[in-house]
Amino acid sequence: MKKVSVILFIATGIAMAGCNDVKREQGSIYMPDMAYSRAFETYSSRDSILFTTDNAHTDDKIFYNNMPVAGTIARGEEMPFPLTKDASGDTTNYIASKQIQNPLPPLDSSHMKEAERLYLINCAICHGSKLNGNGPLYKDGNGPYPAKPATLVGDAKYENMPEGQMYYSIMYGKNLMGSYAAQLNRDQRWSVIHYIKAKQAEAKGGNIPAAKDSAVMVKK
Fold first, then answer.
1. Domains in the chain, CATH or no CATH each
2. Which one has a higher pLDDT value, 13 or 198?
3. Which of 166, 160, 152 is nearest to 199 (CA)?
4. What separation in angstroms does the CA of 5 have from each of 10, 15, 16, 18, 115?
5. Residue 29 above 80 pLDDT?
6. 78 falls in which pLDDT band (50, 70, 90)?
7. Handedness of CA 192, 198, 201, 202 (dihedral sign)
8. Which residues of 33-58 are buried (b: 16+ CB within 10 A; e: fewer)?
9. What pLDDT is stored for residue 53 in this prediction?
10. Terminus-to-terminus CA distance in the chain, angstroms?
């Protein structure tokens, strides 16, 4: 019995001593490839912080930059807008955008309906469902927005605005209008412009360019 007590006393002392010295550092790893993933991290950029001056890794991860080559066009996409956003106070590219033509052919009835849906979701809140600048944000001057947005139908300035310049405004924003590049992809921006131009022509009693069914696919 005395031996058992002594053994218990010694074991308790060892356990208490071990608890007082908490191990903070990681020990040796028997199979590091299972503990740390060596897989390529697709689309991740190299972080210079993770590399020393001699370009050696300072951690256990492999970084692989698999980004597309600059200027690459994905299959099925339209050509990107060739002009960048003007610097503050500059209008060079905004003026140059007048020369850019809409790459989409005239929309058929089904795609025109989709373009109208996109307009109502993204544009009508400011420019109005009738394109008269009287959307819910203005509401005849009684809305939360004090300044009337652009009148797309009924104002010669916007009725005569080239499609490329409209695209520039949607892509980068213009004056108080912010960019809608995140809300609409390339095809959708051009199709909304087709819709606006069609409504402008309709208001003037002109002919809207006809298109055969399924003439163009608008990405959703």
1. 29-68 (no CATH), 92-203 (1.10.760.10)
2. 198
3. 152
4. 9, 15, 16, 20, 87
5. no
6. confident
7. negative
8. eeeeeeeeeeeeeeeeeeeeeeeeee
9. 47
10. 82
